[in-house]
Amino acid sequence: MLTHPTLDQLNLLGLAGMAKAFTEIDASGEAGAMSHTEWLGLLLDREITHRYDRKLLRRLRYARLRHQAAIEDVDYRAARGLDRGLFQKLAEGSWIDAHDNLIITGPTGVGKSWLASALGHKACRDDRSVLYQRVPKLFGDLQLARGDGRYGRLFRALAGVQLLILDDWGLEPLTAEARHDLLEILEERYGRGSTIVTSQLPVDKWHEVIGNPTYADAVLDRLVHNAQRVELAGESLRRKRPQRPAASVEP
Q: Rounded to an integer, what is the distance from CA 112 to the centroid of its chain?
């Protein structure tokens, strides 16, 4: 069999998944027991899987999610009021297709950021673009970007992704510049993308954080009226559980 020329041709065509599968099948000696159709089908399956994995890795790198979280690892037994049916419905992502928003509120430590990251991870798996931003750092980054010429590029990234995650909203009042930036981002995203907001504050306290009543009304109109809500309660999960690897278990 012309093993090396075939591998060269597969690699030349950029079919790395097929090339790897070809090598493994040939080395295992299973090729003789397979029909040409079965062999070709297996090679194609491996190429599709390889391309999907590479695309997913790129999306996750771009998203920069706070936690390595997956919806399969969500703990529904924790006493925090998380509705299994609602969250599993959210994981399907139809609300993202509809350009709706999601607000997750609750006290510190109940897993708001982890759940948002899990939904972001699922969106990446579903071939959607995702970007995570922690709100206190975001406004500082935007301020710096104004000075070094990156503002336009950063703004387009925030406005253009299919799912934007704004974590830790409401920790401190907004400055005039931050109010303006937030409104512009939400205006660009309205009807075009979905936003997840996590906050320790209930929504009825958000006016105070935004500060200016006119801006507050405009921001909340674009963020809240078409948003689904997950309202959590209870004690911090961090106090109840021993330290575990962050990549595998909530929170």
A: 13
- φ/ψ of 164, rounded to 5, equals -105, 130
Share of the chain above pLDDT 90, in %: 66
Residue 224 CB-density burial (10 A; 0-12 exposed, 13-18 middle, 19+ buried): middle
Q: To 10 degrees, the CA torsion angle through 143, 210, 185, 134?
A: 60
Query: What are the DSSP E strand ranges found in 95-162?
Result: 101-105, 130-134
Q: CATH number for 64-240: choose from 3.40.190.10, 3.30.1360.10, 3.40.50.300, 3.30.310.50.
A: 3.40.50.300
Of the candidates 92, 123, 98, 90, the one whose C-alpha atom is nearest the C-alpha of residue 191 is 98
Sorted by where each begins, the domain ranges of the chain are 3-62, 64-240
67 DSSP assignment:
S
Report the alpha-carbon distance of residue 251 to residue 110 in Å, rounded.
8
| Whether the predicted pLDDT of 251 surpasses 70 | no
- What are the DSSP calls for 174-216, one per residue? PPHHHHHHHHHHHHHHTTT-EEEEEESS-GGGHHHHH--HHHH
Cis peptide before 5 (omega within 30 of 0): no
The phi and psi torsions of 179 (rounded to 5 degrees) equal: -60, -45
Average pLDDT, the chain: 88
